[in-house]
Write a structure and sequence with these properties.
TIM Barrel; about 40% helix; alpha/beta; 11 helices
Length: about 350
């Protein structure tokens, strides 16, 4: 029986953790200079923007606007509405070197019809994005190899090499993971951190060849462990055969979390530089949840920028007046204003 990705990450983490702890003792500006001198400035290779094709979710992740307990009116777009969303994004940011993060809720257990299941919504959303000329980023796990395969095969074959499956581990601190994602019970598949990491194997076996990883910096009680685990995970996936790995760098900045958990600016900048130093072949993605000043300061460490596609988080060409949002954006500059 093969070892799980989770186990392999823990084994590899022991190698990287001492390096991460040593680097965290340095100042952020020194680490940034070291990373640029050693690996050169990161070459920006594109922009991304999220599009919610469904916001139905049975998960109750703490602090998420789309948690089941958050309430609000929920929807699953029709195929025509998905195409309308993609057209709105294309008009806002163009499709050249641009990718859509296709988003749904984490999962659902049949409260809506099979036609509107999360696998169907992701498959049709990815297809609409690809046919509009975008690269595609899948950020919702179907929890089965068959589901990953169905989503991939819904896209034109020529789009497969521009498709990436991204799954955030959230944190490698198991106590905090369960506090964030909920208990490991059958009705909450995201509650099992081992299964969560193993989704990358299911995606690979279904034919996906580009992966994305990341943790919510600050969620874990020891940020060095989360950074080292993410680095180890990126190396494990590369060794598996993934052609590219992207590291996203969201951080805990608000919501229903203790102030002490939040990742301050200096630590955040250190984390970005460490990822660049220890995974120079990985692409680093910084979202528009960071301020314009922060993103400008880190531009030479990051390859991919999140941008504002339409007028609301996730795009709202179809439902522009929905009050529910998953998170807030801090940098609302357009792609033209960013010059990317």
């Amino acid at each position: 029986m093969h070892s799980t990705i989770f186990d392999r990450v823990l084994q590899r983490r022991s190698v990287w953790l001492p390096h991460v702890r040593r680097l965290l003792e340095k100042r952020a500006d020194h680490l940034r200079k070291e990373a640029v001198e050693e690996h050169g400035p990161a070459e920006n290779c594109g922009v991304i923007t999220p599009a919610y094709v469904a916001d139905v979710c049975d998960a109750n992740c703490r602090g998420c606007g789309y948690a089941k307990s958050a309430g609000g009116r929920r929807y699953v777009l029709t195929v025509a509405q998905m195409c309308q969303e993609m057209a709105a994004h294309a008009a806002a940011i163009g499709t050249n070197n641009a990718a859509i993060i296709v988003l749904t809720g984490s999962y659902e257990h049949g409260s809506i019809s099979k036609r509107n299941s999360m696998v169907w919504a992701n498959a049709m959303g990815c297809k609409a994005a690809a046919e509009a000329g975008f690269g595609v980023i899948l950020e919702s796990s179907p929890f089965t190899q068959e589901g990953f395969g169905e989503i991939l095969e819904a896209m034109p074959r020529a789009a497969h090499d521009r498709a990436r499956s991204t799954l955030f581990q959230e944190t490698w601190d198991l106590k905090r993971y369960r506090a964030f994602c909920g208990e490991d019970v059958p009705e909450n598949p995201k509650g099992n951190p081992v299964s969560r990491a193993e989704q990358h194997r299911l995606a690979f076996e279904a034919g996906w060849r580009h992966a994305g990883v990341g943790v919510l910096l600050g969620l874990g009680s020891d940020i060095a462990i989360d950074i080292a685990s993410t680095i180890a995970q990126a190396h494990v996936l590369r060794d598996m055969g993934y052609r590219s790995v992207t590291i996203s760098i969201p951080r805990l900045v608000g919501g229903s979390f203790p102030e002490a958990w939040r990742c301050d600016d200096e630590t955040f900048k250190k984390a970005v530089a460490i990822y660049r130093l220890l995974c120079p072949w990985a692409k680093i993605l910084i979202t528009a949840r960071e301020t314009a000043a922060m993103r400008d300061e880190l531009h030479d460490l990051c390859h991919i920028l999140g941008v504002l596609g339409t007028t609301k988080v996730g795009g709202r060409a179809v439902y522009p007046d929905r009050g529910i949002e998953q998170f807030k954006l801090a940098d609302t500059r357009t792609r033209d204003e960013l010059g990317v």
